[in-house]
Specification:
This protein is about 45% helix and about 5% strand. The protein has about 120 residues and is mainly α. It has a domain of about 55 residues. Strands 1-2 form a two-stranded parallel ribbon. About 5% of the residues are buried. GO terms for molecular function: ATP binding; ribonucleoside-diphosphate reductase activity, thioredoxin disulfide as acceptor.
């Protein structure tokens, strides 16, 4: 669709719009001359704003690559397993440290088997 038509339609709607329209224009090859021409045409038609966004075609293409579903699953599984191992070792270390102490500096922990004793579980 021609961008001139979009400007014309925006100008036709302008008397019925309380505020100025946020107009989006799209140009494949944007040059200063084209942009200036569009702004002056919109201004001549009585639009308050020339355009809200100016979209152009990307200057470069993104690198397209994929992982095989098997590699992606294996990577995710190994990351999850490593996170679980680290968490379990921290919990074991925390429990061992609390057993060795007299309990005055122990951190309260939620026990899923006894929710009544947990303040966070509204027990």
């Amino acid at each position: 669709m021609s961008q001139k038509i979009i400007i014309d339609m925006a100008a036709d709607r302008a008397p019925y719009v309380d505020q100025s329209q946020s107009m989006n224009l799209f140009l494949k090859d944007c040059t200063l001359a084209k942009m200036t021409s569009m702004h002056f045409y919109a201004w001549h038609k009585g639009l308050k704003t020339g355009m809200y966004y100016l979209r152009t075609q990307a200057a470069s293409q993104a690198i397209k690559f994929t992982l095989s579903p098997t590699m992606e699953r294996e990577s995710r599984t190994s990351r999850i397993a490593e996170a679980v191992r680290r968490r379990n070792s921290r919990i074991r270390g925390s429990i061992a440290g609390n057993d060795a102490k007299d309990g005055s500096n122990s951190v309260p922990m939620c026990n899923a088997l006894d929710p009544a004793g947990c303040q966070s579980c509204s027990g």
